[in-house]
Structures are given as C-alpha cells and as structure tokens.
Design brief:
With 214 residues, the protein is an all-alpha fold. It has a domain of 72 residues. The protein is built from six helices and no strands. The radius of gyration is 37 Å and the shape is rod-shaped. This is PRC1 regulator.
C-alpha cells in the first residue's frame, strides 16, 4: 500500500510539473506568436499531458530559433544598409530594430537593399566613366584641380568618393563645363588660324614659309 501511495504521489507531482510546464510553454508560445506575427499555436486536444508538454516545448524551441534567425538577418541587413548609405549618402531603411521583423519586413528590406546595390553599381560606373573624361579634359586644358570637389574627383581612391545624387549631378556639371571650355578653346583657335591665313594671303607669304611657321 505504501509503495502504491508513493507511486500515486509521484504521478501527481509529475502531472503537476507537466501542467506547470504546459502553462509556461503556452504563455511563451503566445508571446512568440505575437512577436513573430503568427497565428496562435493550438495543442492537440487528444494528446496525453506528457505528449502535449513535449509538443509545446518542441514548438517553442522551433519558434525561438526562428526569432533568433530573423533578428540575426535583420542585423546583417542593417550592416549592409549602413555601408550602402555611407556610399550613397542616403538615409537608412526605416524599421524597428528592437522588434522581431516579419517575413514581409525582411523581404521588403532585401528588395530595398537590392535596389540600393544596383543604384550604387550604376553610379559607380557613371563616376568612373566621367572621371576618365574629366582627367583627359583637364590634361588637355592644362587645368589643375583647384576646388575640393575637383580634387576628390581625380583622387586615386575611387572608393572614397561619395556617390550621392548631388555629387553625381556636380560630376556631370564639371564634365560639361570642361567640355564647354574645350569647345570654346577650339573655336578661338579656329578663329586665330583663320585670321593668320587671311594675313598670310594679304602679305602674300609663300607656302614654304607658312609651313615652317605652322
């Protein structure tokens, strides 16, 4: 009888522990479902207390892992976002760093970063192409970079150049100005050559002397 009483007591204690564990797991699961923006978890009614407790713990561990994974991905995306924002001089993506992001939030964030990356590559190509043309024009015009922006453009460290929208616009404007200056110089040279030829004609300078003076 004593042995039976001890077994019954132990069973009742185990049942009590399982019921407490079930209550705690269910409470934690409710919190996780809200954080992960998932539907509430419903335990199977026909299961035994032992099986119910095991199912709840398994589900809770899976959801905790999902929470950690989402938070880790958010951290990784934010690091990429900061790097791109530094290069493009834009504001970071608006998202609550303390909350657990939804799958839709993470998907929007990934697509946003993909767009920024494409924008960065496009502006990088524009910068490199414009920089080459600017350097050639400066050499042709014997122009020394005299402003801080011009010095930044011709600097060897291309990664240090801020690819902001304003900087790209200023880059195109500088290229246009240098191109206009070259066109003006060419027009002036053409005018001077024309006047020299006119003077040669009036002075009846022989062709040999003209060639030696050219």
């Amino acid at each position: 009888q004593n042995l039976l009483d001890m077994m019954v007591t132990e069973e009742e204690r185990l049942k009590e522990r399982l019921l407490k564990s079930i209550a705690l797991c269910q409470k934690e699961l409710d919190t996780l479902c809200r954080e992960l923006q998932l539907d509430p978890f419903e335990a199977e009614e026909e299961s035994t207390i032992l099986q119910t407790e095991k199912n709840l713990r398994t589900r809770m561990e899976a959801m905790l892992k999902q929470k950690r994974d989402r938070k880790q991905e958010l951290k990784t995306l934010q690091e990429q976002d900061r790097d791109l924002c530094d290069i493009l001089c834009t504001t970071p993506f608006c998202i609550d760093s303390n909350a657990v992001p939804s799958l839709e939030d993470l998907d929007r964030y990934r697509r946003h970063l993909a767009s920024l990356t494409a924008q960065k590559e496009q502006r990088q190509e524009e910068f490199i192409s414009s920089k080459r043309q600017i350097i050639l024009l400066m050499e042709e015009l014997d122009h020394t970079p005299d402003t801080s922006f011009e010095q930044d453009v011709v600097c060897e460290d291309e990664e240090a150049f801020c690819l902001s929208e304003d900087n790209i616009a200023a880059l195109h404007n500088l290229l246009q100005q240098l191109g206009a200056q070259r066109s003006l110089n060419e027009a002036v040279c053409a005018e001077l050559r024309s006047r020299i030829v006119a003077l040669w004609e009036r002075l009846q300078i022989p062709g040999e002397e003209r060639e030696s003076s050219a």
